[in-house]
Design brief:
Number of helices: 3
Order of helices and strands: EEHEHHE
Number of strands: 4
Largest sheet: 4 strands, mixed
Strand content: 15-25%
Distance between the termini: 55 Å
Helix content: 10-25%
Radius of gyration: 16 Å
């Protein structure tokens, strides 16, 4: 089956750099999808100089499983870049993202979060 990664693009009204934003490199870090959806909903071309290219869900299989790693090969997508077009599935995804997305942007923002069940440590003195 084909695995597709939808890309959302806003071409600004003025010239400028191409900024890429990705979310859900880790499938249990779902907040990136919402951040990118909110940017898509709230930004207008007149507000932007350059182009904003957004890949909200880099790893739909790990997102579906709410897993940090791709369930079919248990690799961490974030650790496989630039990938390989002849490797494991996760390596092929990172190769496709590198070739078709990362190689075409000037600046890059990758959204991470605390995972599905984030926790923190508070130190009290």
């Amino acid at each position: 089956m084909d695995l597709t990664l939808p890309v959302m693009t806003i071409h600004g009204a003025r010239t400028g750099p191409v900024v890429g934003i990705t979310g859900t490199i880790h499938g249990d870090e779902v907040v990136g999808i919402q951040v990118i959806r909110e940017l898509w909903r709230s930004l207008e071309a007149a507000q932007i100089a350059g182009t904003l290219v957004m890949l909200p869900n880099c790893n739909p299989l790990s997102f579906e499983a709410l897993s940090r790693n791709t369930p079919l090969d248990m690799l961490d997508l974030n650790r496989t870049f630039p990938g390989s077009d002849e490797g494991w599935l996760t390596e092929r995804m990172s190769h496709a993202i590198t070739t078709n997305f990362l190689n075409h942007i000037d600046y890059y923002i990758d959204i991470h979060a605390g995972g599905t069940f984030p926790w923190g440590i508070i130190a009290i003195r």
